[in-house]
Write a structure and sequence with these properties.
single chain, mainly alpha
């Protein structure tokens, strides 16, 4: 999960710099799809868990990102759709990473044993805020830099 999140941050910062980073993108999207899909290996499961819901939403978001990137080739509004869906997929990875950290790291578990305590809620709130900023910045910068490069090469 940490490696997937790291790859996601590499492509997120690539988006901020107007770069596509093909290899990192394929690695991130593929491994995130595989990670999300593994939650459904033992379907039907006896009880629907929050992890199943997050995994299902993540798979839908990833399908949109893959479609925007590889079928629509980032044309028009699909560029923003790709950026937002890729960032949202990364957010879900980090969200799950924070949840798992508070479940498994003893010091964090002591701070928020039921994950409803302020340290957990504040951490998830900060993560959400950072991803909202990252998403808006990514849309703005990836669009501007990509269009600038396209315009410059067509002259």
């Amino acid at each position: 999960m940490v490696a997937i999140a790291l790859a996601g941050f590499v492509i997120a910062f690539g988006l901020l710099g107007g770069k596509r980073l093909e290899g990192w993108t394929k690695f991130f999207l593929t491994t995130t799809v595989l990670t999300s899909a593994t939650g459904f290996l033992f379907f039907p499961f006896p009880k629907l868990l929050p992890s199943h819901i997050i995994g299902g939403i993540s798979l839908v978001v990833l399908a949109i990102a893959i479609f925007a990137r590889y079928v629509r080739h980032l044309s028009g509004a699909w560029r923003s759709t790709y950026v937002l869906s890729a960032i949202l997929a990364l957010y879900f990875n980090v969200f799950v990473l924070v949840v798992q950290s508070f479940m498994k790291v003893p010091a964090l578990k002591a701070l928020a044993p039921t994950q409803s305590e302020p340290p957990f809620v504040i951490t998830q709130g900060i993560v959400l805020l950072l991803f909202v900023v990252l998403g808006f910045s990514g849309v703005k910068r990836f669009r501007i830099n990509s269009l600038s490069v396209s315009a410059a090469t067509s002259r």
